[in-house]
Amino acid sequence: MQFYDTERVGLFIDGSNLYAAARALGFDIDYKRLLQLFAAKGRLVRAFYYTALMEDQEYSPIRPLVDWLDYNGYTMVTKPTKEFTDAMGRRKIKGNMDIELAIDVMEMAQHLDHVVLFSGDGDFRRLVEAVQRKGVRVSVVSTIRSQPPMVADELRRQCDTFIELLDLEPLIARAVPNREDRGFEPQ
């Protein structure tokens, strides 16, 4: 990873995309460690986390994470999911945060030297290109080591640096308690 001590860094995390990539690689992310890693690389200006929430549910499994991130240094950008019925009559839930992320990157570009985009979505290629024209370096964090790869080839080609998520695992993975820590006796 090529970072400079004095550069202003912004993190833009596509929550569902990063979750899916880490899951495909078989680990969970420790968001405190992730924030510390990138804060040590430069001057971290802001860390945005984007996710859609199901508002009508009494309990959402993502709510504790969203609350923790909100209290621990992340700027949360959320919106309610939308429910619809597809052409086959199946109930679908949609919660795309691409526009929110793109607008925030464009608005923040003048205050940043380096954008770190946690997503493999090829729709962000034009965003990366536009930010680069403003003189901002862009790193993309995703994976090519899952089956299938989670990053679009056009996004990898456009960014200045591609950071393989699996290479970050030792630095940002959540520690998995061993059996003894959970009260199990070894057999």
The CATH topology = Rossmann fold
CATH homologous superfamily heading: 5'-nuclease
The CA-CA distance between the termini, in Å, is: 43 Å
Q: Residue share in helices?
A: 25-40%
With strands numbered from the N-terminus, the spatial order across the biggest sheet is: 3-2-1-6-7-8
The overall pLDDT average reads 90
Could you walk me through the main structural features you see in this protein, from its secondary elements to its overall organization?
There is one protein chain. With 187 residues, the protein is α/β, with parallel strands linked by helices. The chain has a single domain, classed as 3-Layer(aba) Sandwich (Rossmann fold). The chain has helices spanning 15-25, 31-39, 63-71, 98-108, 125-133, 153-158, 165-172, and strands at residues 8-14, 43-53, 75-80, 82-85, 91-94, 114-118, 137-142, 161-164. β7 (137-142), α6 and β8 form a beta-alpha-beta unit. The longest helix is centred in the first third of the chain and has 11 residues, at 15-25. The protein is globular, with a radius of gyration of 18 Å.
Question: Could you give the topology of this structure?
Answer:
Elements: E1 8-14, H1 15-25, H2 31-39, E2 43-53, H3 63-71, E3 75-80, E4 82-85, E5 91-94, H4 98-108, E6 114-118, H5 125-133, E7 137-142, H6 153-158, E8 161-164, H7 165-172
Parallel strand pairs: 1-2, 1-6, 2-3, 6-7, 7-8
Antiparallel strand pairs: 4-5
Features:
alpha/beta, disordered C terminus, Rossmann fold, 187 residues
